[in-house]
Write a structure and sequence with these properties.
The complex is a heterodimer.
Chain A: H1 2-20, H2 25-32, H3 43-59, H4 82-98, H5 102-111, H6 113-131, H7 133-136, H8 140-152
Helix pairs in contact in A: 5-6
Chain B: H1 2-25, H2 31-36, H3 46-67, H4 79-95, H5 100-109, H6 113-136
Helix pairs in contact in B: 5-6
Classes of the chains: A mainly alpha, B mainly alpha.
Chain lengths: ~150, ~140
């Protein structure tokens, strides 16, 4: 049941990406082109999603545990560190270069593998590399951050 | 106007998916986290992650099968740019613990201060990158 529900929720999410137009990189780039011929429509994707999610999450406040899992796993970190600036900065540049973020990349690669495969594989490689402890400590930004962290400690 | 309505509806569907994943699985619907933990070193709860991503991959194919329509996917960047962009998206989302779905949709809805910062930063850098490539360097 847990797996079937995860599969169906994945389907639902992906249909949302298709309906909204988020799956189309050219449309995403037009949305990101605020100072050009701006296509503001995709702002409403975030609007609709945040509206439903904030109400929905609140309605779960009294639920003791999830239907198919032993507990809720909700991020507890509240610190703002260098990685929280550097990571999203790199992500934003990549997103702005191509117009694909991770969710739409998965939906798009199955629909038109030929045109999206290069981006998709490079994205997986980037994820893999960022999780490697040996390279993580060698990233220039990472070492600056770790150095600063040592000083603060 | 039609575009705006579809965007809002699609967004609401994405939100519904996020709420359902929390209600059934107790997890934040963050695609970069779900996907990256399937790469080595693989996390122990890889099964539901794979099932979720299988659903994401299947949806466009199911839609095409039923309606005969393929979703419009126009890529304007060449392969080199795609490789650089992909690498940056992969590195950045793992370093920053989230992407548009995890930080953007779920994090903003939880009013998480880390997600508000992350979303602000990636939006500004994405706007800036498009501005530079389209209006300064000229693409």
């Amino acid at each position: 049941m847990k797996l079937l529900s995860a599969f169906c929720i994945g389907l639902l999410f992906s249909f949302g990406l298709i309906i909204s137009g988020m799956i189309n990189p050219a449309k995403v780039l037009a949305f990101l082109d605020v100072l050009g011929a701006w296509d503001a429509s995709l702002a409403f994707v975030m609007g609709g999603a945040v509206l439903v999610t904030s109400i929905g999450y609140r309605s779960l406040d009294n639920q003791v545990k999830p239907l198919f899992a032993s507990g809720f796993s909700i991020p507890t970190r509240t610190d703002i560190d260098g990685n929280l600036i550097a990571g999203p900065a790199l992500f934003g540049i990549g997103w702005g270069l191509v117009g694909l973020c991770p969710g739409p990349a998965f939906a798009a690669v199955s629909s038109s593998p030929k045109s999206v495969l290069a981006f998709f594989l490079a994205m997986l490689l980037g994820m893999y590399l960022a999780r490697m402890p040996w390279i993580n400590s060698k990233l220039p930004l990472g070492s600056v951050i770790n150095y600063r962290r040592k000083i603060h400690e | 106007m039609h575009d705006f309505l579809m965007a809002f509806l699609g967004g609401a569907v994405i939100g519904l998916a996020a709420v359902l994943l929390m209600a059934t699985n107790g997890s934040i619907m963050g695609i970069s986290g779900i996907a990256s933990r399937l790469l080595p070193p693989i996390s122990t709860d890889w099964l539901w992650r794979s099932a979720f991503l299988a659903g994401v991959l299947a949806a466009p194919l199911i839609m095409t099968l039923i309606t005969g329509i393929q979703p419009v996917i126009e890529i304007t960047s060449n392969v080199a740019l795609q490789l650089i962009g992909g690498l940056l998206v992969g590195l950045g989302t793992v370093m920053g613990n989230g992407c548009t779905s995890g930080h953007g949709v779920c994090g903003l809805s939880r009013l998480s201060n880390r997600s508000i910062v992350a979303t602000g930063v990636f939006m500004i850098f994405a706007f800036g990158t498009v501005y530079l490539s389209r209006h300064v360097l000229g693409a």
